[in-house]
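tool_call predict_complex ligand=S-adenosylmethionine
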Amino acid sequence: MVIMSCRITFSNTWRPPRSLLARLCCHFSFSTRLEECNEFLPWLEHRAGVEISSLLSIGKSAYGRSLVARHPIKPGDCLFKVPYNVQLAPDNLPRGINALLGDNVGDVAKVALLILYEQKLGKKSEWAPYITRLPRPEDMHSTIFWDDNELEMIQQSSLHQETIMHKLFVEQEYLTIKECHGLDLYAHIDQNLFFYISVTSRAWESSRGVSMIPFADFANHSDLSDTTVLGSEEKQLSEVIADYSYAPGDQVLIRYGKFSNARLLLDFGFTLPCNMYDQVQVELTIPHEDKLRQLKLELLSRYQTPFLKDVNGFSSSENSFALEEVRSADAQGRGIPQSIRAFARVLCSNSPQEINDLAVEAAENDGRLARRPLKDNIREIQAHQFLLSKITELIEEYNASIKSLELPNLCMVGKLDSRRQMAQYLLTGELHVLKSAALWLENYCATLFRV
Ligand SMILES: C[S@@+](CC[C@H](N)C(=O)[O-])C[C@H]1O[C@@H](n2cnc3c(N)ncnc32)[C@H](O)[C@@H]1O
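tool_result ok
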């Protein structure tokens, strides 16, 4: 749901009053008793001064609390409307703190700080009924909280590295806040991470930056649902309109975004057994022993295309490519991304002349490098066979990792077993993507052989 922010630098030396600092120290006292949920919607509606939902209530599901139909619902019905005045965004932070933080930390960290601030106020907080219903640390499974042994299970996936980077990023954000207040506000990094993930797993991007949307955040996710949270600036609210019919008691699932299992696991702490938005990150490098390495690197940097982050937003570079499932194995279909094929064409060039030809072709056309099939069929096949061999290698490595994860028994109990299951879903999803890419490449090469 939420974007990752960029790293920041900070040089403010102003210090807040001590009383403010003291109020920011935290104690954990979250509660998730279900019977308390019945009181939540009336409380929120009273606070908002309007009805939020007449059709849904908060229920229980295999995924924790959920939104459930109270009455028959038909497509087009408004499931709920949550006004902006009962959402938690960075501008809800006390003005003094907000001014102090400025643009030096991202919106997620600001909202996390807001939760911490309100939690510290205890019953005096006007948000107490919401704050006390946030999940407990032990219910959270983002890979940020996985220990080294657990992370080892996903070593094959780029999520492994991404988790380490993300943890460093969050630590940096809190160091900045700490520096800003001149006091160690957070005794343990785990607590900082906990507040941070409470936000990433329950917030939406909004015109106010990032917003926690009470009530909406009891909705669970399905990649198959077309139902999403919509924001209306005009009406100053977030709303969800039904796309399907529901009978009383049915759970209403929404789609948080077109998120891969890697993104779901990092930001929300769960994976889907079969996720249609799965992706795998493939990295290619030009070997140091390649005599044309320098020429190739120069060519690639001269015609570098700007890197666009997709919804999964994982860090990437010019030599890291996100593959999605290739749904049509047919060599004529959309296939694997043009960017990785172009890189392979450059990487497999074996003379300065070939490299120069690619540069001339790019300059004479739209400036994009190696996007057209090589004129020499054999060289085009070789470039794609190279990709196929890389992907086949990865497939073998994924198979070995998945095998090593095979569960000792079918009964899923305990934190480690559920995390092992999540790791399995992550790796099998990424393996599925790799296999579809391999099949497409085989077909593409076979088609060229026949020409
Ligand atoms: C926005 S909250 C949804 C409400 C949450 N179930 C609760 O009890 O508060 C997101 C969290 O719900 C859980 N969740 C949502 N969709 C899920 C799914 N399809 N499978 C497993 N867990 C899911 C995850 O724990 C996730 O971090």
